[in-house]
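Recap quiz, item 2
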Amino acid sequence: MAVPKIWRKIPEYYNLIGRQCPECKELYFPVRDVCKKCGCLEMTDYKFEGKGQIVTFTITRTPISDPEGENTEIPARDVPYAVAVIKLEEGPMLTAEIVDCNFEDIEIGKNVEVVFRKIMEHGAKGVIQYGYKFRLC
Amino acid sequence: MAGIVAWGSYIPRYRIKVEDIAAAHGGDAEQIKLGLGITEKSVPGIDEDTATIAVEAARRALKSSKLSPKEIGAVYIGSESHPYAVKPTGTIVGTAIGLSNDYTTADFEFACKAGTAAMQVAAAWARSGMADYVIAGGADTAQAAPGDPLEYTAAAGGAVFIIGEENVVAEINQTLSFTSDTPDFWRRKEQKYPGHGGAFTGEPAYYRHITEATKMLMKDVGTKPEDYDYAVFHQPNGKFPARVAKLLGFTEEQIAPGMVVRKIGNTYSGSSLLGLAAVLDIAKPGQRILLTSYGSGAGSDSFDLIVTGRIADRQTKSVESQINDKVYISYPKYLKNTGKLA
Ligand SMILES: [Zn+2]
């Protein structure tokens, strides 16, 4: 991801700032500029609390390999890693990594809370992208 | 009088036991535990660094303070493991805790005392009226080369304080420093791991600076060791602070509540500050706390703190609960988490 794009996503990635439709009050994460329900174009920022529940999850033990080391975008995670679909308390669902636990402890329906983590390093010389991951609480 | 308005701490969940590090290097775990006075240490997740630790601690401090982000005028984070050589950690922390753009920041660096140095500057800002409230603290993901004795203690964690003149829970009655040019521990530019002078890190370094700064402070405010309910000294291991306390005339009872090193290791810039956070978690109005940090290179900052009647509103026993909330990992996993295995 190019530096300007990383920079533009800081509010979403750091503080779970999505959107609310001022007309029908529908909440969105990630950011949408047009309301899917009523077509409103004047969406306002909305900060989600960062609490939710695991809807489903998967544990990746064999990710796509990069034998030539061509990929300069290096995710800040170990293998295996766990990714879950999380339903936020306010309604919207998002996909995020589940960290800080033994994978046996991850279950559908468990409560999670947001944590601030490194997401990606753009090579040893590039920028560090920070953002949201979740952990059991 | 300027003082601590709120505090927040963060300790990563992962732990490694002394036994597992000793097994990798053929060391005698029982002897090492006895010699260093620690049983296990905290380990950062592979996705944690000084910025993420400082953000978590600062979010907790801000939430506890009930202040609006608008009231924060400056952010000063001290560390010897800032993620960038050029690009301040404070910019990441400020944005992640919801500050707008009307604040100032710069990063602090002074080995393990960078966090207390930041707090002194924060107190000066608050006293002078240049800002209503300032965020200051220390965080580190300490690095040690595999096989170096430092590997048993180098840990991760941090604590952040909001300093101001109003709504104070612990007044900073006095703070002063003792500084010299003493090369006991260092890391050269672009080097991954620190170098150190072995036993030289003891008498002329840690012990001299902490005892001199603490004596200067007590002389200045006219106190004796028995006037303090708690004392917190920098904790590179479990032995040094226990011995320096004894040399100065403090008892085990005064230092025990702040000795977090025994369970989480040396969190460098977070070390004495996590000890202070643990003490604030249990302190009562009117109690007096002595804090003396130590940073290699070398210097000590000493603080005379007096707890106010507002303290109970902020106490969550957060340090103790984080010390007990842990996931043990193996030595290979520890190497991966700390970037020693690609
Ligand atoms: Zn709508």
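DSSP finds twelve helices and 14 strands in chain B.
Residues 202-221 of chain B form the longest helix (20 residues).
End of item.
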